[in-house]
Amino acid sequence: MFRREVLSSTTHNSAMSEEKKATTPLQRDRERRMISTGQSEDIQWHTRNNFEVVAPPKNLPRESSLEPTYRQHEKEEEESEDTCDKENVAVFHANSPDGRSVVQALSKSGATVVAIVRAFTSKNTKVLLQIPKVTVKVADVLEAEAVKNALKDVHRAFLCLPQWEQFESKHEAEQANLILKACITNQVPHLVFSTFEDAKQLRDKGLKSQLVPDSQGRIHPKFKDMKELKREAQKNKVQLTHMITSYLDKENSKQSLCLIMGENGKLIVQPQ
Fold it and tell me: Are residues 43 and 167 in the same domain?
């Protein structure tokens, strides 16, 4: 369900004045993404070689579309204005396999994604830069100021966790607490704890799914370790959602089941 996957200037552009060049949408976007003077060193912005490749027009062959004209720049600016109101979503641990799946799904849905990673040198991070509408930020999730800066201008945040109903360690609980506080400070209204489990991998290792039904076949997650965090979120009007996607990805069988638990305690099941 969440397993999904930024396309320079022509001779026409070279005739433009230096002043016009400095005000093209690509240049402005590049300047916006560059690290500003005085910005904290624990936050860095990255785009693919600090430029984006403009997608080719639909009615032109790909070969000739690699050199966009100035009209294409104007069209890009118009499209950017049309989508400026779309959701800006942050994903923590984005360079993990699960985080990358969330980033791909959000990008395909039309959201602008801030992929937050601890190290830019990871090969998984480089893959993130190939996904449209994705900007990578480097931030230590145990540094309060770094997390706060990473969530500026964000409408929703995802924290990818290996466990669903509990934190794997005190270290992970501390991360979640810092991210929630940063959501409160930046007025991010929605935080999602997202977990994935590969049913085939579990079966191969002789492990059980986290989705364990009772004797009557019902699933009643408790979230005991997360109750204090939930109370803090409710107190500060941050919606907290728990989501787990269990999937079977085999050559002859691809299935998934997504369970979502919101603040009202009701469990939403989304098979696919």
Answer: no
